[in-house]
Amino acid sequence: MTATNQWRLCVLAICAATATLMAIMPLRAQEKIQIVASFSILGDFAKNVGGDRVNVTTLVGPNSDVHVYTPAPADAKKIADARLVIINGLGLEGWLPRLVQSSGSKAAIVTATTNITPRKFGAHVDPHAWQNIANAKTYVANISKALSEAAPADAEFFRSNAEAYRTKLDALDEEIRLWTAQIPPEQRKVISTHDAFGYFSSAYGLVFVAPLGVSTESEASARDIASIITQIKTQKIPAVFLENISDPRLISRIAAETGANIGGTLYSDSLTDEKGDAPTYIDMVRHNIRVMRNALAGVTLRR
Amino acid sequence: MLGIYDALIAPFTEFEFMRRALAGVIALALGGAPIGVFLMLRRMSLVGDAMAHAILPGAAIGFLISGLNLFAMTFGGLIAGFAVAILAGIVARITELKEDASLAAFYLVSLALGVTIVSIKGTNIDLLHVLFGNILAMDDQTLLVIAFNATVTLIVLAVIYRPLVIECVDPVFLRTVSRAGAPAHLAFLALVVINLVNGFHALGTLLAVGLMILPASIAKFWSRDITGMICIAVAGAIVSGYAGLVLSFQTKVPSGPAIILVTAVLYVLSILFGKVGGLIRMMFPGKHLEA
């Protein structure tokens, strides 16, 4: 008799639990805004603004190259399920518009670089706008605006998150200027693998030279390599840097031939995973400027 | 005079990476061009391309397992290449299917497997760009691997030269006098794989096949005997490598394509002016010797 009672109670409990779960699940799903960000840095911005009210997935994950990404069917599915798709624009994600079309998604596309004046290379624009903190703040404002339009009830929450994050970015900007000031002006020259730091360069006064063009897709010619080697020798540039998304061999060759040090790894277009040097945008920028300062000001790395 | 020196010699005296690139191209030419000649004579020119596709996934898997490690990638490429070559050879010998068809089947399987494994692992760095070297970025390791492979190729080629030549011209005769045909064929396929892996390290991407096949096609227009063809193919490959590097240095054309484009120009010139079967020769045959 007791055994039967226990058994009945169990069934009842399971029924109750299932009912509760079923009641909660759709609610939860409605609550969180599904956001797809094209690459890891945008994803980080969206997470900071959206907090726990959003669910952010990134298409091009950590340590991957957004210039030459090949989307998979899973990506089309992610986009089809999304309310918002956040892209960088400025020609960075050439593969994305077709993906959005073919996924049949009704998601709103948010271009994070709206209101940013792009740098121009002849007919091309440089997409790496996030490397300037002032631009990053515009990214955050654009994302916050788009989120508020998607969920007006949470607008205040997004606004205060964005505000808090922008304060952090301001502090970061200060920090960069502080670190840059420690590098003697004649040594503010950096060689890295692809031309991703144009915005950083014009904002903070470091000169960047790269064998590959703005996109990692281009291939270097012997002429390019030779002119960089000559430049390093004549201008006595102290260090060259690797990137997490490009072939390190070319830059190693240049270092070997000029006697310049390999200053470390810079992160330009992609964050790292949790264990890496640059799991978030702020970590990334901080890591980059420290590595540059330590290599260029002739101080050894502490880590 | 100074202008010529500046244009043709100075890039190499001034920059070490140019000297290394030249050394790499020469090693590549010494190993690859003779292989290309035999591939052409055996009507297997396109097999080179198929094998290149078969090798790619192996190297990619090596890259995924141990990162940008030259030996892991070489090893992976060699294993994938050998596996496809041997399986295709076996299927061709014990079934009705011709070798080219079974090779096509196996290289496609290898390619599909490779792409699948790479996507499951989830890296999205463009593998072609990262995996395979740039002729301008030759480090000691790469140079040694290429030179070693070229040496092995020439030695093995010397050993299997006779059966290989006879099989090219008269396979039935070879079968009646010797049983060296099958082992020689397998060894030859192994050499093809080794030289393709070599080409990958130096030229990157699928252009690797170019420095193997094009010089052989050039040689066909200038010589009737195999020794002559091999010499001309090697010379053609070295000249194209050198001229391609100079072209890339002077005009900003990427080096890999520059080298292959130079071979292509030589090829077109050979089609037109070649001594053996060149178009102009055929249209205006020289006077017959008269007694």
How is this structure best described in words?
The complex is a heterodimer of chains A (303) and B (291). Chain A is α/β, with parallel strands linked by helices and 303 residues long. Helix content of chain A is 50%, strand content 14%. Chain A has a four-stranded parallel beta sheet with strand order 2-1-3-4, with helices on both faces. Chain A is elongated and about 90 Å long. The relative contact order of chain A is 0.11. The model of chain A is unreliable at 299-303 (pLDDT under 50). Helices cover 80% and strands 0% of the residues of chain B. With 291 residues, chain B is mainly α. In chain B, helix 3 (16-41) runs antiparallel to helix 10 and helix 8 (140-169) packs across helix 9. The mean pLDDT of chain B is 84. Chain B has helices at residues 2-8, 10-14, 16-41, 45-66, 70-94, 99-121, 127-131, 140-169, 171-177, 181-203, 210-220, 226-251, 255-273, 279-283. The A-B interface holds A 60-61, 63-65, 68-70, 72, 216-226, 229, 245-250, 252-254, 256-257 and B 11, 14-18, 20-21, 68, 119, 122-126, 129-130, 133-134, 136-139, 204, 245, 248-258.
What can be said about this structure in brief?
The complex is a heterodimer of chains A (303) and B (291). Chain A has 303 residues and is α/β, with parallel strands linked by helices.
Task: Describe how the helices and strands are arranged.
The complex is a heterodimer of chains A (303) and B (291).
Chain A: H1 2-31, E1 33-39, H2 40-50, E2 54-60, H3 73-81, E3 84-87, H4 96-103, E4 108-111, E5 120-121, E6 124-125, H5 133-150, H6 155-181, E7 189-191, H7 198-204, E8 207-209, H8 222-235, E9 239-243, H9 248-258, E10 261-266, H10 281-296
Parallel strand pairs in A: 1-2, 1-3, 3-4, 7-8, 9-10
Antiparallel strand pairs in A: 5-6
Chain B: H1 2-8, H2 10-14, H3 16-41, H4 45-66, H5 70-94, H6 99-121, H7 127-131, H8 140-169, H9 171-177, H10 181-203, H11 210-220, H12 226-251, H13 255-273, H14 279-283
Helix pairs in contact in B: 3-4, 3-8, 3-10, 3-11, 3-12, 4-5, 4-6, 4-10, 5-6, 5-10, 8-9, 8-10, 11-12, 11-13, 12-13
